[in-house]
Amino acid sequence: MNILTLQQLSKRYGKFQAVRSLDLSVNAGEVYGILGPNGSGKTTTLGMILNIIRPSGGSYQWFGEPENHRHRQRIGVLLETPNFYPYLSAVNNLKVVAAIKQCSTERIEPVLRQVDLWGRHTQAFKTFSLGMRQRLAVAAALLADPEVLVLDEPTNGLDPQGIAEMRHIIQGIAQQGKTIIFASHILDEVEKICSHVAIMKQGQLLAAGAFSDILQSEQHVLLAAEDMEKLRNWLQTQPAVSQVQAQGALWRVELSTPLSAMDLNHQAFAAGITLSHLQARSTSLEERFLALTAEVTS
Amino acid sequence: MNLLKIEWRKLAPYRAFWLALSAYVLLMPALFISLHNFNVKVAGNELNISFYNFPDVWHNVAYIASWFNILLYFFVILLVGNEYQYKTFRQNIIDGLSRTQALWAKVLLMLLFAVGSTLMVAGLGFLCGYFLGDVSAYPVSFEKAHYLGLYFLQILGYMSLAFVVTHALRKQGMSIVAFLMYAFVAEPVLQYKVLKDWIPLPQVAAHLPIQSFGKLISNPLPAYFGIGEPAVYHAEAVTATVLYIVLFCGASYGLVRWRDL
Question: Tell me, what's the ipTM?
């Protein structure tokens, strides 16, 4: 089932093009990461699909239907900064949310317990620390038991413990099979949580699809031997080897099929080459991400 | 109805609002009732003026009540400004209100204030007329009760001005300063004839919002001292006020509908 479709969605602020003709499609059950450096248009995109920023062009559809405020009652949203009435207690703030989402107030206690805020439920929002405010925002997002969650940099500004708690909560939600749309500039965060990813830079979509297709991790091996020329000649005859490059005093070898370090060592020894250096590494996602985003700049 | 439920959940536990509201509800009748002891001596003779005789009591109570309009103006700035300051207006939309609903919720609240305030003034006028006025000489009469309707229009006019100013500026402090500058400096200055050689400003200025709202309920005092009849009900002030209310609410709608939040 289609949850969200963007068609040529654009936003222009004067001369500055914040989002350029974005096409994207999110299906039910996907955990969709929108990845990009700061200022790449992620928050603007989320703002548009939540009707707080007016698109300059294009359209979007929730649940396969044109824009309607009732859709947002079925969506839980967690933004960078939690917005609540400071003079209202945690419970009274959630009562306002419940009235807007037209859901019952019965779930207020369980969601506050889930984010570990029930102990302070009668205290005013203004007395809360940033971590507690962010947890109240999680509670508000979960209140209506939404089918879809939209998260924008939910770990920004939190301390390491807060970040760990927040990730734990999000992973828990993802395991319940809900659709999650998740914007972040932290690759590591997206890698841990998302099944699909869209990469944005300067308002443009660079790539979108299943995580493993877009940011596939590859293996490479660093090798050295006494006779480096002999080693290279031998490597080039091996079917598992796709590329051999110099990296400092070592050969950096890309493998097209997985080959364990032990097997490689065995085969080299059988060919009369004694390896003096052998190190298996996987190409970091960071490198691939940087390579992808660097293409636009140049 | 759900919109009022949402607004109620925001207001019910809001202490600052209830304090301001109770000040309004207590002070306004207190001032009107305290006029009971009002007395003026001219050349040693007490004039024995009573403000509570029917049917003039309707006019008098509406006039005194209009002194407190500025409080209603501040209520609107407080409640609408809060939504911008706390970014909860934005949050309400994200949570599932449409922009139109978010605006309507506040318009309903203003209507509720206007109805409540008018009912309070009506009750106060009747009770004062009945118990403090000279009912034997001036029996209960609703002849000038249309001043209650004018009062309703007047406070709705003030509140819709506050509404559009706060939507445009989005900040409480700025909205208050802008209102005070406009109502007590800009409009009065325009009334003077300093510029009349160039353009007929006073004629235009006479139809500006604050002037039009003010003209709805004229000062009843001069009549008591025999220095001029109370100005009568101005059809053009009513027309102007209704137009301003529509204009201000329409402009607020435009701002909310088309702006990024």
Answer: 0.86
